[in-house]
Design a protein that fits this description.
The structure is a homodimer of 351-residue chains. With 351 residues, chain A is α/β, with parallel strands linked by helices. Chain A has helices at residues 15-33, 46-52, 58-66, 89-100, 123-126, 167-183, 198-210, 224-233, 245-259, 297-310, 314-329, 340-350, and strands at 3-11, 36-41, 69-74, 104-110, 130-136, 148-151, 157-166, 187-192, 218-223, 240-243, 266-270, 276-280. In chain A, the strands form two sheets. In chain A, strands 2-1-3-12-11-4-5-10-8-9 form a ten-stranded mixed sheet, sandwiched between helices. In chain A, a hairpin with a 5-residue loop joins strand 6 (148-151) and strand 7. The longest helix of chain A has 19 residues, at 15-33. The interface between A and B is large, with 62 and 62 residues. The structure holds 3-isopropylmalic acid (IPM) (2 copies). Chains A, B: Catalyzes the oxidation of 3-carboxy-2-hydroxy-4-methylpentanoate (3-isopropylmalate) to 3-carboxy-4-methyl-2-oxopentanoate. The product decarboxylates to 4-methyl-2 oxopentanoate.
């Protein structure tokens, strides 16, 4: 009889309400599929700041490390926007990623037939989009040193950060990307700015080098500015995209908006070993928190990724994913106006 | 009797053919408006590499510096793609920007009523888009030091770049942006990643500080990942956007693709004083070079920006811009299949 421990980090804004729905769905699915889930809820982000004074308490990180997988709602809100850097909710999230060593962030952007109208792109451009952004998550300019604010030789204020990648950091994310592409449609596009940045030149060279180990994957390279254009021009040309932390931040958000269904998009962050981190890609939406308006399906689909990538419970993952599709087919077609209560009802009944 | 010297840098691919059409239009417009233009054509990019071994010969840079304005076609091509960094056409372009000290890059993205169908965005989302990206062009990660490829303490290959901004660099681009917004619809959105990067925190703080000098401009801030989404979701919300070099590279290309008319979009790069640099935002498109297929209107509109921002010849600029509109109204509505010969014919006849 299998048993897993899941750390729940509801976080801020709509985080708690969407996590609670996903938790119930996970419970139900585990009892159907015959394994046990134990949940441990811990504070994180603004909620942790208010409670403990830091955005990622030590207890939260160690609970996360000790569990089999971590499900995060969302963090942040106006209240903490002007906090100093080390007291920002976002800093807690970066510490969590670093602490769990989850260097590979998988962000699918899929246009479901039921939701094609939600995209601002023309139907013929949006329909059938099904891509995966593999974003490097624990390196690059997010973590590079030196960084800081200082006074330069002319007595002038300066802000600086370092974009840096070592060969092994590129290799390991590239491997995840090649493997991902292999299990999808076999096409990998590596995005960089190798015509300007040395960090990107190394990136391109290492990715190129690994390609010989994946002869079944068709590799191409694209500059980041062009990728930002191509996602708008013809997103269907992409299968799997691999890129660095900051470009991945930008392009995965752009890709998600192209689907028009940001309330539907999950993400998984994985390391070499140890628990993965699963979270919807949307934010904490403080404006609509507590009003039963937030679309919980991105978090439910994140729980699906948790079952699949985090626990290896593929059947349970499939059950959850199809309950989401059934719920959509029941008529929940807009991403904006929602009755979370109704979604909850149908979701559970379709499991 | 006024006389100006213009340096022409046709460059590579379709560069020469589009520059030649813009040159003729400039000549015609100058004779109508009663000033003289002297042209000096110099090699640049891949063409210069083939001719002289470097992508920006000293003679080219000094001719550019000595002139009243510089009109560039496009640079780059497969042939030079694998060159070492200092022998890339792109490096020549960066050296030109640095040499001319053109720190402010203005990139309009406008959806003309005649061309609204060219956008991949739904008509109601695309129509009426009229925004301007003000991109910092001579600082940030493009030029920051230290940079390079090296071996780290573990004997491993590393690539690194430095994102760095000093207060005065932020202030001067912010001023250009506030002035630009003031002459447009009075809304400025500053884009950064201040929740993660110190360079962005300083950026936000300096822009915020200057805002009090422009009480007539409504300032907002947005994270770059959100901006990449909002451009897809609702581009009409933007009037003027100001951002750093790399974010500006990505967002201005995304914005241009949103218009669907990349063959129609000009740009201006301006410094504190000295000649400005004017160029279409499209690339050198080697595939269609020499076939009379390239849309020359982006370069013609760049010549319009040259007249306006570079020479202060507002009337001539307006004449050129309306000839472009008349040419479009004559029926040239697609950005892809073009008869440059016909465009040339109508353009000149409408001047
Ligand atoms: C909140 C922020 C620090 C974070 C990031 O930039 O990584 C977010 O935008 C994301 O993409 O998960
Ligand atoms: C060619 C390249 C160096 C350049 C840049 O990145 O600035 C181009 O993309 C642009 O936007 O003008």
């Amino acid at each position: 009889f299998k048993s897993y421990t899941i750390t729940l980090l509801p976080g801020d804004g709509i985080g708690p309400e969407v996590v609670s729905i996903a938790k119930n769905a996970l419970l139900r699915v585990s009892s159907i599929e015959g394994f046990e889930l134990k949940f441990k809820e811990m504070p994180m982000g603004g909620a942790a700041l208010d409670l403990t004074g830091v955005p990622l308490p030590e207890d939260t990180l160690s609970a996360a490390k000790d569990s089999d997988a971590v499900l995060l709602g969302a963090i942040g809100g106006y209240k903490w926007d002007n906090n100093e850097k080390h007291l920002k909710p976002e800093t807690g999230l970066l510490q969590l990623r670093e602490g769990l060593k989850v260097f590979a962030n998988l962000r699918p952007a899929t246009v479901l037939p039921q939701l094609v109208d939600a995209s601002t792109l023309k139907k013929e451009v949006a329909e059938g989009v099904d891509l995966m952004v593999v974003r490097e998550l624990t390196g690059g300019i997010y973590f590079g040193k030196p960084r800081g604010l200082s006074t330069n030789e002319f007595g002038e204020e300066c802000g600086f950060n370092t974009e840096v990648y070592a060969a092994h950091e590129i290799d390991r994310i590239a491997r995840v990307a090649f493997e991902t592409a292999r299990r999808r449609r076999g096409k990998l596009c590596s995005v960089d700015k190798a015509n300007v940045l040395e960090a990107s030149m190394l990136w391109r060279r290492r990715v190129e080098k690994l390609a010989s180990e994946y002869p079944d994957v068709e590799l191409s390279h694209m500059y980041v500015d062009n990728a930002a254009m191509q996602l708008v021009r013809n997103p269907k040309q992409f299968d799997t995209i691999v890129t660095n932390n900051i470009f991945g931040d930008i392009l995965s958000d752009e890709a998600s908006m192209i689907t028009g269904s940001i309330g539907m998009l999950p993400s998984a962050s994985l390391g070499e070993s140890g628990p993965g981190l699963f979270e919807p890609i949307h934010g904490s939406a403080p404006d609509i928190a507590g009003q039963d308006k937030a679309n919980p399906l991105a978090t439910v689909l994140s729980a699906g990724m948790l079952l699949k990538y985090g626990l290896g419970e593929e059947k349970a993952a499939q059950r959850l994913d199809s309950a989401v599709l059934d719920t959509l087919n029941r008529g929940f077609r807009t991403g904006d106006i929602y009755s979370a209560g109704l979604v909850r009802y149908f979701l559970i009944s379709f499991l």
